[in-house]
Input
Amino acid sequence: MDIASCYFIVKSRRYEEYVVIAVCKLYLISLHCVAFSALGYAVSDIFEYFGTINEKFLGICYQVFCIIGVVITVYLPLDYYYDGVTLYTHGPAAIATYVFVSIYILSVIIAAALLKNHLKAQKVYALYLWMAVWAISAIIQFLNPKLLIVSFASCIGALIMYFELENPQSSLSRRTGHFSSAVIHEYLDYLYQTKQNFSAMRISFQTSAESSDENKLLRQTIEMLSDFLFSVDTAKIFDTAEGYFLLIFENTDFLESTKYQISTYFQSIENSSDVGNAITLMRPFYTIIPDCSISENADELMMLLASYVPTIKGNSSSNEVVVTAETMSDVRHQKDIEKLVIDAMENNRIEVHYQPIFNLATNTFSSAEALVRIKLIDGTYLQPNEFIPIAEISGRIIPLSDAIYRRALSFIKSYHIERIGIKHIELNLSVKQGESPTFTTKLLQMLDDYQINPDLINLEITETSSLRSKERLHENMSKLEAHGLSFSLDDFGSGSSNLNYIIDMPVTVVKLDKLLSEEYFKKNNKAQAIVNAVIEMAHSMGIQIVAEGIETQEEFDEMKSLGVDYIQGFFFSKPLPEHEFLKFIQEHNLKYIYQ
Ligand code: C2E
Ligand code: MG
Ligand code: MG
Output
């Protein structure tokens, strides 16, 4: 408008007077609008979230004020000057514009100062700079009307604003050029606040990328996918720092077709030599949330997406998970349990109960299994089946196990349990502990701290398909065995039974799972054959047998006649808190010991 007004003034002879004046006035009106917008920009954040009725009223006053300013500028007379070299406009309309614009500029400065605590420091700084540049140029032009610098200064100010605040670089990932993880939250917050319906899809890769080769392939795959995603215009695409992409669909209808488009792309390159190799190895995985209203806010949504990171190099055939309201409540439950675990660890409410194990050869309770419980604030106990599997998934199992082991070792140390006939305590070993490279050193250190003889400890290992590194477990077991610890194979017959465990691993005891003995008691032929064969085989290898979950006299008698070595179950006792356990053992063992 500034340039247009200059053009019309220079060519004023060619045009009607009122046309030239109209263009000049349009320019003045544009100044009103820019200054008013600056004020709007300064206070917009505040109005969106905190606007009180008074503030909203003030906003309306400013809008009316702006309209009045424009009307006055239109009605007041305006003149222009041109001598062949210099030109400018002057007169009441120009002065009115100055007055109004000055009021806006002042208002912006005051608003920025008042709202300092609610605005980003960067924004306050940029607003001040813009206003200062503009005000100074206005003063200069007012004193010297021939210097037409006001609009130029205003443009410079807007540029400053843009680079300081709306600078796309800070919102884009340097790696891929898609939106960066820094703005995901802001964007999701916006969607939740404006109550929009949207879907989300995360593309990650099912690899643990352990070797540097795999890391290279992963990078290569991400780069290719990233390039391809630029052709997707149905969703906003975010490159999260964790190496996956998050697609947000404001129009939920596009989710399916876009997913199809992406998987077709993957298929199309899968056949092309080395690139295809990368894709096959990395295996794209989709986490889909068709309706994001299942989550209440951005935090929860991000947590939901994150709790489905496919880290295990499994052979699961599915390459997607659809997160529904049901999954959401599972995840919430998991999070609640995790909080309970953390809280219990911090407040010393991890307890260990002990279940006596009866030795048929000596007729005494010669060992016991340590079983963790979490004491809740109301005094009731949370059972391990409720929190151990969750702690395994969330990675909390290691610190939790450390707390359990310390508690048990301190108990063994304080009460000299060997004096009441307990030969060893069985501690459950989680898969994660067993395959941890630091496990051996840590456990030996703990034994040393509590001055406990390692042969007082027996570790119960469970056969499981989630074991990633059998070699590491083997290694840990051999080292610990050399220090005098012994091992039991827990839950034999409950799941993916694998007799190799008995052959491969240095176990001295096999614990028959309750499920297997139940089948045995039901006269299930296969179960009877397995139990007989296992007992015979184990005995021939010098391995002893514990029958777990024995509840009745009949079950006890039957197991005894089968030739098992130990009996554990509610028939004798449930797992007991420390003092009750000591009392139980003293009452039963001492009469045998002193007989
Ligand atoms: P598990 O190691 O097989 O422990 C035996 C479970 O059977 C215990 O359940 C015990 O209370 C229960 N049980 C014993 N006798 C009977 C019986 O006669 N009838 C019935 N119905 N149940 C009986 P609990 O204490 O709830 O522990 C469940 C599982 O949680 C354990 O199975 C173990 O896998 C895990 N767990 C417990 N404590 C720990 C721990 O400190 N660390 C780890 N990693 N896992 C633990
Ligand atoms: Mg056990
Ligand atoms: Mg068991």
Residues 356-370+396-593 form a domain with the TIM Barrel fold (CATH 3.20.20.450). The radius of gyration is 38 Å.
